[in-house]
Write a structure and sequence with these properties.
Elements lengths: L1 H13 L6 H10 L9 H18 L1 H13 L4 H22 L1 H5 L5 H21 L11 H12 L8 H11 L4 H29 L8 H25 L6 H19 L7
């Protein structure tokens, strides 16, 4: 229970920062005395908690988008609803087709260390060259599809859902706050779908996760509480600051992980 509680804290702290929550859950799990890798199912289910935090924090935006979309009134909110649906399609298709790779091959710490560094540098470059000219009112179908493809990269632990979509948004010229806000909204359908799917499997098969359902529930609730606080902080932070600290952290963590793997301190699988 204490391990699950701790992992819930890690999930809540890292889900929205562009540093990859799935990578941190995988890395931290390696040092747990009993669990080792908590598994893709545990990560997907606890992400339900952090996405509930998104629902609560952006409840007005989500309500306005939902109302406009059902009315088909041609408003920017209705168009944004359509683009969220379009942007969700790539990760749904790739997630379904690549389930075995996501569950097994993508859990290698060599891969995670590499993606932490590579996509950290990509985020830093994108944030530096981004022109900050666009907001979500200018989002079009082309950009929506590109956002969706960027989000699908987060199927690989270490990439970071928010990191990939923010980097893409900055490359396209969107302001930091707009790129981050859309990243949160775009993640909702995919994360809830994945989490509920894994939750159903875990309830029917106790071997799906190394943790029991009460432990997973505690981790999910913890992730929700911590995640909400992180969203509130991050939205204020990026209004005046860049993503440079997260880039430095990613590169440092990835490098430390490579050293630990090369010296045999930890195992890649």
């Amino acid at each position: 229970m204490l391990e699950a509680l701790f992992l819930g804290i890690v999930q809540g702290l890292t889900e929205f920062l562009p540093i990859s929550s799935s990578a941190h859950i995988r890395i931290v799990g390696e040092f747990m005395p009993h669990a080792n890798d908590p598994g893709a199912a545990f990560t997907a289910i606890t992400q339900i908690g952090t996405e509930l935090a998104v629902l609560l924090y952006f409840r007005r935006d989500i309500l306005n988008i939902s109302r406009a979309w059902f009315k088909h009134d041609g408003s920017p909110e209705a168009r944004l609803g359509n683009l969220i649906i379009i942007g969700t399609l790539p990760i749904v298709a790739l997630g379904y087709l690549g389930q075995d790779y996501i569950t097994n091959n993508f859990r290698s710490l060599w891969l995670i260390a590499s993606t932490l560094i590579i996509f950290g540098l990509i985020l830093g470059f994108a944030d530096r060259v981004g022109r900050s000219e666009k907001d979500l009112s200018t989002l079009n179908a082309r950009d929506g599809i590109f956002y969706g493809l960027a989000q699908s990269m987060a199927l690989i632990p270490g990439v970071s859902r928010s990191g990939a979509t923010i980097a893409l948004g900055r490359f396209l010229g969107y302001k930091r706050e707009a790129a981050l806000r859309y990243s949160f909204l775009l993640a909702l359908p995919a994360v809830f779908g994945s989490g509920l799917y894994e939750l159903k499997k875990a309830m029917g098969d106790s071997t799906v996760s190394v943790y029991s359902m009460p432990e997973i529930l505690i981790a999910t609730i913890t992730a929700f509480i911590i995640g909400y606080a992180v969203i509130a902080w991050l939205m204020k932070y990026i209004s005046t600051k860049s993503f440079s600290p997260f880039v430095i952290y990613r590169v440092a963590l990835g490098s430390a992980l490579l050293i630990a793997l090369a010296t045999g301190l930890i195992s890649a699988q």
